UniProtKB/TrEMBL annotation:
A single Gene Ontology CC term: Golgi membrane
Main subcellular location of this protein, as a coarse class: Golgi
Keyword set includes Aminoacyl-tRNA synthetase: no
The protein's name in its UniProt record: Hexosyltransferase
Upper lineage: Eukaryota, Viridiplantae, Streptophyta, Embryophyta, Tracheophyta
Pathway this chain belongs to: Protein modification; protein glycosylation
Highest taxon, organism lineage: Eukaryota
Family: Belongs to the glycosyltransferase 31 family.
Organism (species): Carex littledalei
Length: 289
């Protein structure tokens, strides 16, 4: 062979070799990538803390709500913890009964406040959480104790949403569909964990604790330039039919929350409508008249 040819040949084989080497390392790299990461699920598991703001004395109502939430199923990739939230205990019998509840259910949060609604309880709730909870959640919901939350509906609704800088609920005024104006009603609104952390450290909420609690939360976020992601869950959240003008409408299957359940007959209607109280037939009981 002529020297020129030998040179060309070696250049060619060198390039072939480097291409081969490149492919090999690429392949190996891909394999290690595949080994070190599990296939990424479409959306990670979702965790939510629902804090139901109530009063220490309402033992039987609390127990009823435990049953209502305990009886509902949630999708396997959604973890929801329901806890009852109130201020410092004031009576001997509260200390006894609530100690028993803690031992049995471990679903109580006692804040360092005296019982109130519009004098900082909601601030105390959110701002305490990062210090007192054993774990963090993707979202924290503040809910009233006269609300039925349909956990399946809420789970489906949240799965699609951003996990940060999120402010979610039923925007007021009633007829508005614009979550960027107004604020989310106190019946039940959700903040992502980063906003809970912000409330715990920012001066804005700390210095504005007194006033209608739901409106204040909206103001904190607006003043702090927070809550870039806002969602109003309509028509999924509403007041019980015919109890509050245009905030009310008929019960619908795709419900997230129904508010103003201050009477038994309303709870009965709601739980029946959503099939929460339907039990498996058995020889041991009958629900017939
Ligand atoms: C999601 O939750 C399920 C059920 O608890 C668990 O088996 C799975 O490992 C979790 N996945 C992730 C990505 O955390
Ligand atoms: C509760 O708050 C009061 C007044 O702010 C404070 O003096 C007290 O140390 C707090 N108690 C606890 C247990 O944090
Ligand atoms: C309740 O169950 C009935 C009968 O299975 C069904 O037709 C209805 O759609 C259910 N209601 C809701 C709100 O899921």
């Amino acid at each position: 062979m002529k020297p020129k040819c030998i040179l060309l040949n070696s250049i060619l084989s060198l390039s072939a070799l480097s291409i081969l080497l490149f492919l090999l390392t690429f392949h190996l790299n891909l394999r290690t990538v595949h080994k070190s990461f599990n296939p990424v699920p479409a959306q990670q598991n979702l965790s939510l803390l629902i804090g139901i703001l109530t009063r220490a004395d309402l033992h039987s109502h609390r127990h009823f709500l435990r049953l209502v939430y305990g009886a509902q199923r949630t999708p396997p990739d959604v973890k929801i913890h329901v806890k009852f939230v109130f201020c410092r205990l004031t009576k001997v019998e509260q200390r006894l009964l609530i100690a028993l509840e803690v031992l049995r259910f471990d679903d109580i949060i006692i804040l360092n406040c005296t019982e109130n609604m519009n004098f900082g309880k909601t601030y105390e709730f959110f701002s305490s959480l990062p210090k007192i909870l054993p774990q963090q959640y993707d979202y924290v919901m503040k809910a009233d104790d006269d609300v039925f939350i349909r956990l399946e509906g809420l789970s489906q609704s949240l799965k699609k949403l951003k996990r940060d800088d999120l402010y979610y609920g039923f925007v007021l005024p009633c007829t508005s569909y614009n979550p960027y104006s107004g604020y989310m009603a106190g019946m039940g609104f959700i903040l992502s964990w980063d906003l809970v952390q912000w409330i715990a450290v920012s001066d804005i909420p700390a210095q504005n604790q007194v006033g209608p609690e739901d409106k204040l939360v909206g103001q904190w976020l607006t003043w702090g330039n927070k809550g870039k992601n806002r969602v109003t869950e309509k028509p999924g959240m509403y007041d019980f039919p015919d109890t509050n003008g245009r905030c009310s409408h008929a019960l619908i299957p795709e419900t997230v929350a129904v508010h103003r359940l201050k009477r038994w007959d309303r709870w009965v209607q709601v739980l029946q409508f959503f099939n929460v109280t339907r039990v498996r037939p058995s020889k041991m009981y009958s629900f017939d008249k």
